[in-house]
Amino acid sequence: MKPTPAISRVPRRRRRMSKSPLWLRIVVGLLAVAVIACVGISVYVGWQLSHPVPKALDDSPERLELAYENVQFPSREGGLTLKGWYLPGKVAEGEGAAIKPNIIMAHGYKNNRLQKSAEALSLAKELTDRGYSVLMFDFRNAGESEGSVTSIGYYEKHDLLGAIDWMNKNHPGKLALLGFSMGASTSLLAAAEEPSVLGVVADSPFHHLTRYLKNNLSVWSKLPNFPFTPLILHILPPLTGVDTDQVNGLAAVDRIYPRPVLFIHSTNDPSIPYSNSESLWEKHKDKFELWTTATEGHARNYPPLKAEYVQKVTAFLEKL
């Protein structure tokens, strides 16, 4: 007769301890679902923020009876075709066209060359009436330009350098940049690499993209800072190839110096705190200027202060 195999018996107490309580398993499950949901939301929102739908152009220099030329040129890197308008400045009798610097305007995030909230086309008319030639163009993934990613300055720097190449080739002379918001920060990055830029007007820039987004991404994402901001900042780089630390205006202004920069910023800006411009201006106060306003909204300094804005900008440009 075969011996009966021994039956391994686990003490009841140990068996009870090895099985987690139902409430604990429910909590762990809910936490896992919450984490997956947060990551999913962050991926979706991060993708939407970096792939905004381009705004169509719904205005033209013709409305203001401005002479203009449709232009296109490649980004300095990547070969994307960018489109814009060249608006020649009016030349007073007996005045040479090369006396005043050419100006390249750079628009902000989720905008196009019109930068309608800042009434950029009206500002361009003010400048061309005073003899300044202006190039208005669309960054990648904006207006009529090619591209599908908006990188808040990282790739747009190459677009602005392409615009500089076009201006220097087709209308050589003095050159200045005038940017709004993302375009202002991008202007600082481009000027740091391009010595032909003699000066920059930076209207409502951020100082350093990573530092800015850590404190202000919720303004754009419409999500609570925690846990979504750190998640999105970790997810965006592999999604877009963007290194936000490289969008560094604080380092760029050191490379621009001793060329001048005029910073314009409202103390009531709800999107980019004016302290961003302050920190950039403080790096080189001997060459940089800061004009703070009390206007409402983001990068909307020109519309309510037209005469003073034009006076401040042209006074700065005249010194280049």
UniProtKB/TrEMBL annotation:
Keyword Transmembrane (UniProt): yes
Organism superkingdom: Bacteria
Record flagged with keyword Transmembrane helix: yes
SUPFAM superfamilies found in the cross-reference section: alpha/beta-Hydrolases (SSF53474)
Cited Pfam families: Peptidase_S15
Segments forming domain Xaa-Pro dipeptidyl-peptidase-like: 100-220
Protein name: Alpha/beta hydrolase family protein
GO terms, molecular function: hydrolase activity
InterPro entries: AB_hydrolase_fold, DNA-binding_regulatory, Xaa-Pro-like_dom
